[in-house]
Amino acid sequence: MNANDINSIKTLLSSPKAIVIIPHKNPDGDAIGSTLGLFHYLKQFNHKATIIAPNDYPDFLKWMPEEDSILKYESHKENCDALIDGAELIFTLDFNALSRIGNMEDSVVKSNAIKIMIDHHQQPDDYATYMYSDVSMSSTCEMVFNFIEMLGDVDKINSAIATCLYTGIMTDTGSFRFPSTTSNTHAIIGELIEKGANNSEIHNNIYDTNSYARLQLLGRALSNLKVIPEYRTAYITLTQEELNKFDFKKGDTEGFVNYGLSLKGIIFAAIFIESHQDDIIKISLRSKGAFSVNELSRSHFNGGGHTNAAGGRSELNMTETIDKFISILPKYKQDLNP
Fold first, then answer.
1. From 237's CA, which of 38, 145, 168, 190 has a CA 20 to 30 Å away?
2. Angle at 311 (CA atoms; ends 308, 316), nearest 5 degrees
3. Where residue 337 falls among pLDDT bands split at 50, 70, 90?
4. Sheet containing 309-314: which strands, arranged edge to edge?
5. Which pTM was predicted?
């Protein structure tokens, strides 16, 4: 985003506007944190801002300041469509292809609103008037901080904004351990703490809210863990029957894939989760080093993301999906055994 873009956006935001802020479907901590952080910033200038999420999200994200003001498109379609139709500006955060917002896509495409993208995923689509796209960034929340800084308003970051942005940076960096975490990321985190983000409380709210059923589900996931040593790969499967047995709730499998990646010698991990509701197998992929799960997911599983973290889907059944996954590993043998 260049200086001309920033000046144009400053002009757009110089008077109150009807604004809609949208995260991707099945929003995570970075998506909810970035949209809420931007929401709290825009409110200070009397903009009529509304966050519309495509669908619901895990309970462990439902404590952030004014999270209860977020509308869910899947349950308030008529109202949300009216807000999108009447919006003057639409911010799309933490995604770069409108296919990532599910049933909202048609409504957003039809809208005459000026669209502003803030995102750090690879290979963005060209739908926004203004694009702040940077794949080197740790998180969209870090980018929202930079965006506010570019507008000259760091002094406007209050404890609510700081809390939301800290949450997204923490979750998308794996508690600051992923390679995308830079010295600048830590500098921003320090500033957010100074502005009121309670780091210990945020961590507890996100990570220390396990139910007994979730821990039982984790136990089942770990018992299903398989290792393919010749490809330095590990994978986990969870069927719909297993999810039902342990009273699965949205977000319960968050982070499970990382257990596979934590094994000594493993540089590629996957989890395959059956969803009867969507009639697909949901896939999360993680890697270490230069091995690109983004490329693998785009090529084979209708997905994408980052070099070391991506998602995908399969319309085959679980057995067929795993067979396909194992069958493509030889194509990547050199990359998996550098």
1. 168
2. 135
3. confident
4. 226-228, 233-238, 268-275, 280-287, 309-314, 304-305
5. 0.90
User: Using CA atoms, how far apart are residues 144 and 14, in angstroms rounded to an integer?
Assistant: 18
Q: Report pLDDT digits (tens) over 281-307.
A: 999 999 999 999 999 999 999 998 888
Work out the angle between the directed axes of helices 183-194 and 159-172 (0-180°, nearest 10).
150
Of the candidates 330, 244, 10, which has an alpha carbon nearest to the alpha carbon of residue 148? 10
Give 212-336's CATH code, choosing from 3.40.50.2300, 3.10.310.30, 3.40.30.10, 3.30.1330.60: 3.10.310.30
Mean pLDDT on 103-121 = 96
User: Can you give the pLDDT at residue 82?
Assistant: 97
Q: Does 208 score more than 90 pLDDT?
A: no
How far apart (Å, rounded) are the C-alpha atoms in residues 194 and 214? Answer: 34
pLDDT at 262 over 90: yes
> Could you identify the residue written with the tokens 């008077």?
15
**Closest to 254 measured CA to CA, from 217, 225, 223, 287:** 217
320, 139 in Cβ contact below 8 A? no
Identify the helix (H) or strand (E) that includes residue 205: helix 199-207
What is the distance between the alpha carbons of residues 306 and 138, in angstroms, rounded to a whole number? 10
Q: Quick one: CATH architecture of 3-207?
A: Alpha-Beta Complex (3.90)
Closest CA to 164 of 135, 134, 200, 202: 202
Instruction: Tell me if 178 sits within 8 A of 258, measured CB to CB.
Output: no
Distance CA 37, CA 142 (A): 10
